[in-house]
């Protein structure tokens, strides 16, 4: 079975979501279904059908999280020796060679990616161009607008 890379923070976030869904949301939905069932005819009971639909979505999400955690290869980058090389989990500061604009990204698993938080997927074009490079190297990223060169300014294990 294929293992998928995930940071410690990503695994923790999934575990917290799983705990919330199983300990808070699931019991509340069961209660809502019981209350709606008492309202009478189930064929025309919108509250009952809405609660059952919500329950189905929550149960599907719980199974999805369990599967993701079961197939996760959790990588704690803070325990890996710092070599200046870009690897999964590292936080990388890069500078556009043309404009000198600097940006910082953490390379994370597909499920954790959130560009607003500076987290890019390991399978994204920019991450694929950076992986394996070292501080001072130039990575060429193929974009729809053409090739962009980025210099790797700093690699951090945080």
Question: What gross morphology would you assign?
Answer: elongated
Tell me the span between the first and last alpha carbons: 29 Å
Fourth-level CATH superfamily of the largest domain: Transcription elongation factor, GreA/GreB, C-terminal domain
Poorly predicted sequence stretches spanning 5 or more consecutive residues: none
How many strands appear in the DSSP assignment? 7
The class by helix and strand makeup works out as: alpha/beta
- CATH fold naming of the largest domain: Chitinase A, domain 3
Q: Taking Cα atoms only, what radius of gyration do you get, to the nearest Å?
A: 22 Å
Give a short account of the largest sheet: 5 strands, mixed
The DSSP helix count reads 3
Helices and strands, in N-to-C order?
EHHEEEEHEE
* Average pLDDT for all residues: 93
The level of helicity is 25-40%
Total number of distinct structural domains: 2
The appropriate CATH architecture of the largest domain is: Roll
List the helices and strands and how they pair.
Elements: E1 4-7, H1 8-37, H2 46-70, E2 72-75, E3 91-96, E4 102-108, E5 119-121, H3 125-130, E6 138-143, E7 146-156
Parallel strand pairs: 1-2, 4-5
Antiparallel strand pairs: 3-4, 3-7, 6-7
Helix pairs in contact: 1-2
Mind explaining what this structure looks like?
It contains 3 helices and 7 strands, in the order βααββββαββ. It is elongated and about 70 Å long. It has helices spanning 8-37, 46-70, 125-130; strands at 4-7, 72-75, 91-96, 102-108, 119-121, 138-143, 146-156. 39% of the residues lie in helices and 26% in strands. A 5-stranded mixed β-sheet has the order 5-4-3-7-6. It has a two-stranded parallel ribbon with strand order 1-2.
